[in-house]
Specification:
Blueprint: E1 2-7, H1 12-26, E2 32-37, H2 41-44, E3 50-53, H3 61-71, E4 74-77, H4 89-99
Parallel strand pairs: 1-2, 1-3, 3-4
Length: 118
């Protein structure tokens, strides 16, 4: 699964993408997560399975979702707290949900040691 974490310039999304990769590794999930500046999204969208928009881009969700739906790519807006979160599990779960990915079998371990489900 390929996740694009989108922000204005790609700087803050780099940290979120790194945390997502760590969370995916802890769960043994085949996930790649990459930062993507907004102005590069159109060219990178076709290869993605899920797009996570920075909270400051929430006002663009409808337009991005329309384009992403045509390509079969799930989209979600990250919560405001995501950039201060030390673990990437919440962002990973949001991306898996947006992409319609099936839940992981067994008892996966969260990278922050917390429960994997509510």
């Amino acid at each position: 699964m390929r996740i694009l974490v989108v922000c204005g310039a790609g700087a803050s999304s780099t940290f979120v993408a790194l945390r997502i990769r760590k969370a995916a590794t802890a769960r043994s999930l085949p996930v790649t997560a990459e930062a993507c500046p907004l102005d590069s999204l159109a060219e990178r969208l076709p290869a993605a399975d899920a797009i996570l928009l920075g909270p400051h881009l929430g006002d663009r969700l409808a337009a991005i979702r329309h384009t992403a739906d045509l390509a079969g790519v799930g989209v979600a807006v990250l919560p405001d707290t995501i950039f201060s979160s030390p673990a990437g599990d919440d962002a990973l779960d949001l991306a898996l949900n947006a992409a319609g990915a099936a839940p992981v079998q067994g008892e996966p371990q969260r990278s922050d040691g917390g429960p994997t489900h509510g």
